[in-house]
Specification:
The complex is a heterodimer of chains A (about 325) and B (about 375). Chain A is mainly α. Chain A has 12 helices and no strands. The model of chain A has no long low-confidence stretch (mean pLDDT about 85). Classes of the chains: A mainly alpha (about 325), B alpha+beta (about 375).
Chain lengths: ~325, ~375
């Protein structure tokens, strides 16, 4: 019985996430359109092109599925699936209200970051299997980038964990009853900023989208992909971005906590706000260079997050 | 250069990756191919390959009458059409000794400067694409610049009926006169553009990512620039104050008061800076044209179709150069006494400017290579002709 319940719950969650992700692409197109003094999608489904994600999906499904003749067939076909599965797996551990989470485990935070770092395998496999020089360069970039940014990502996430005294998302939410961790003087804000930067770098978003680098490497690791396999990359990217937004809203903004409205609604509002903030960053900044990216990570973000972690630890141990 | 022995040896060198950039690549600004040799991501050597947009304009010129030719050249450097036809009509006017009227000269300056503004807006916008890709902040800059350029094109449309290939210049004068209230439209455009340009400058020049990506990248020394014959913003960014509008004024440019922005270091940032400052200078020239527009006819002769075709004397030759948004654009015309040029040679600024690529690219990363190429602002219609 418990298995059936779990299956039904995960099916519902999966369907909801896929639907939301499809409409997040629409939201991004409208949002970037407004930023760039355009209207964005408009014609497919009036008003405001609300059928656009469905039209996009249909177009991608009906496209020819090409596997380059000299590609590594197994890896080439496995990589998109890997990316989607890994991105969606992260949602299993994230609480969507104060009490509801698909898989409740006391190491949720650690598990989430561990799952997130598996993305690099899919990206690297895609780049390697494509047998394309641009894809290879891109996958090398992204391997270096994601592995490097894991360090400040995890270190900055440890700060809320230390403040809450637990790696369990439920405990982290409960610990924010009196104040959100983003409002914690200095330590909270620094760890939020570092986490945001590292998360942008890990999910290949501007200004760190070096592995996609459209103007340099054309499309990077997904250059040889077409049709639905290409769509999987997008799906995975947006699902990961949504998971990151959800994580930020839980860990730094108190998740479902908030006055009047139910917890589920609060978490949705906060996630959407964080997502829009990431989009705003994305459509405002230029891309930085690979050496500057590494410099930023090892010389600035990592030392600062170490110091920040130390300060948080000191504060907690002195006050307890 | 295709597949010679030396090149094949380089390709087999252990640890180097030969990468074909272009001719179908989003940031080669047209159909341009760079054969890059990379060590890691660092460019070791580069062989540029041009000719994908060769349209045989020079040969085509030998088959058409002089009056038919200006529109052809407008397709040459397709981001600043009137500069091309202006160079041609100036050369033919020298050849046949036909002076344009003063009013025509002023109107030529007007269109040339407006198109310099639109061309530089494209240069800065696409430079944004080079730095940021079409899925990020670069696209935002690109679309802002194109939105503003649209206003310039709208003005050109109300002046000439055509947005882009205006066909304004003809031998002996210009084709269209200003309409009533034109000055109001121009001043409105000037105010709008100056506001926007100031905004872009504030946003870009205070952005650490933009500065990091452009400063001290792709440095061109004045000596190198002179050696390859670079001109325009690329040359002025190195600190050489050379502009044909100032040094050898044509078409009444001596009447106008304007500054020449020059750079100090010759890097990518300086080339951007020179361009964006030239937009303001061009807008100032446009207002001076409007204020001092002399009365009189806009044409000293009518273009004729069959009878009394323009026939310069046999053996006459003339060279006229204009400062196009990309640099010194020269046309050399040789006459054999017939109604068609015997030989026509275009000295195109983009062609000389991209000769810098093999000199300055090695040692930079791929990302810088794209930025450098964008900062040279070549137009491949102009390179390949």
């Amino acid at each position: 019985m418990i298995y059936i319940q779990g299956l039904v719950q995960s099916a519902i969650l999966l369907g909801a996430i896929l639907g939301i992700v499809a409409y997040l692409t629409w939201l991004e197109r409208k949002f970037s359109g407004r930023l760039q003094s355009r209207v964005g999608p408009y014609l497919v489904g009036r008003p405001h092109g609300w059928l656009q994600p469905i039209a996009d999906g249909l177009k991608l499904i009906s496209k020819e599925d090409i596997t380059p003749s000299r590609a590594d067939r197994l890896l080439f076909n496995l990589a998109p699936a890997w990316i989607v599965v890994v991105s969606l797996l992260g949602f299993a551990f994230l609480p969507l209200t104060a009490n509801w989470v698909l898989v409740n485990m006391d190491l949720g935070l650690l598990y989430f970051t561990a799952i997130g770092s598996l993305l690099v395998i899919g990206v690297f496999a895609a780049g390697w299997a494509s047998n394309n020089k641009y894809a290879l360069l891109s996958s090398l970039r992204s391997a270096a980038q994601i592995v490097a940014y894991e360090v400040p990502l995890l270190l900055s996430l440890l700060v809320p964990a230390i403040l809450a005294g637990s790696l369990d998302f439920k405990d982290i939410i409960e610990a924010q009853e009196s104040y959100w961790f983003i409002t914690f003087p200095v330590i909270g804000q620094i760890s939020f900023l570092i986490f945001l930067l590292a998360a942008l770098a890990e999910s290949n978003k501007m200004p760190f989208d070096l592995s996609e680098a459209e103007s340099e490497l054309i499309a990077g690791f997904n250059i040889e992909y077409s049709g639905m396999k290409f769509a999987y990359f997008y799906l995975g990217e947006y699902a990961h971005l949504m998971a990151v937004s959800l994580l930020v809203s839980i860990v730094f903004f108190g998740g479902p906590l908030g006055p009047l409205l139910p917890g589920g609604l609060w978490i949705a509002i906060k996630t959407l706000a964080v997502f829009l903030g990431i989009l705003w960053i994305r459509w405002s900044f230029l891309r930085i260079r690979i050496d500057q990216l590494m410099m930023l990570n090892w010389k600035i973000l990592t030392p600062i997050s170490f110091i920040n972690l130390l300060l948080a630890g000191l504060w907690v141990s002195l006050n307890l | 250069m295709e597949g010679n022995v030396e090149e094949r040896v380089i390709e087999r060198d252990f640890g180097e990756l030969a990468l074909n950039m272009g001719p179908q690549h989003p940031s080669t600004h047209g159909v341009f191919r760079l054969k890059l040799h990379l060590r890691g991501e660092t460019v070791v050597s580069v062989v540029p390959d041009i000719g994908y947009l060769h349209r045989g304009v020079e040969k085509l010129s030998e088959t058409l009458d002089y009056d038919m030719l200006p529109p052809i050249y407008e397709r040459d450097d397709y981001l600043s059409p009137t500069a091309n036809s202006l160079a041609f009509v100036l050369a033919v006017e020298k050849l046949a000794d036909k002076e344009p009227t003063k009013r025509a000269n002023y109107l030529r300056v007007l269109t040339a400067e407006l198109q310099r503004v639109s061309s530089h807006l494209v240069a800065i916008g696409t430079f944004g694409l080079d730095l940021g890709g079409s899925m990020g902040g670069g696209a935002t800059l690109f679309l802002y610049c194109f939105r503003d350029r649209e206003k310039v094109l709208d003005l050109m449309e109300s002046l000439t009926g055509t947005r882009f290939h205006t066909n304004m210049n003809q031998i002996g004068g210009v084709r269209y006169d200003v309409y009533p209230n034109f000055d109001k439209d121009v001043l409105k455009l000037k105010d709008y553009l100056e506001k926007q340009v100031n905004e872009y400058r504030t946003v870009l020049e205070t952005n650490p990512i933009f500065l990091e990506r452009t400063r001290d990248v792709g440095i061109v020394t004045p000596e190198l620039a002179k050696e390859v014959g670079a001109s325009g913003p690329v040359l002025r960014a190195t600190g050489v104050s050379y502009d044909i509008r100032k040094n050898k004024p044509y078409s009444s440019y001596e009447d106008f008061d304007f500054n020449l922005p020059v750079g100090t270091r010759g890097d990518v940032f300086d080339r951007y800076l020179v361009r964006i400052m030239e937009i303001s200078e061009s807008l100032s020239i446009v207002t001076q044209v409007i204020e001092g527009l002399p009365e009189g006819p806009i044409n000293s002769r009518k273009p004729l179709k069959s009878a009394l075709l323009l026939k310069p004397p046999k053996g006459a030759e003339a060279y006229a150069a204009v400062e196009s948004p990309r640099g010194e654009l020269g046309m050399y015309v040789l006459s054999d006494g017939s109604s068609k040029p015997y030989r026509l040679k275009i000295r195109s600024p983009s062609f000389s400017n991209i000769a810098l690529i093999p000199e300055i690219l090695p040692g930079h990363l791929i990302a810088d290579a794209v930025a450098i190429l964008g900062s040279l602002d070549p137009v491949f219609g102009d390179v390949d002709r």
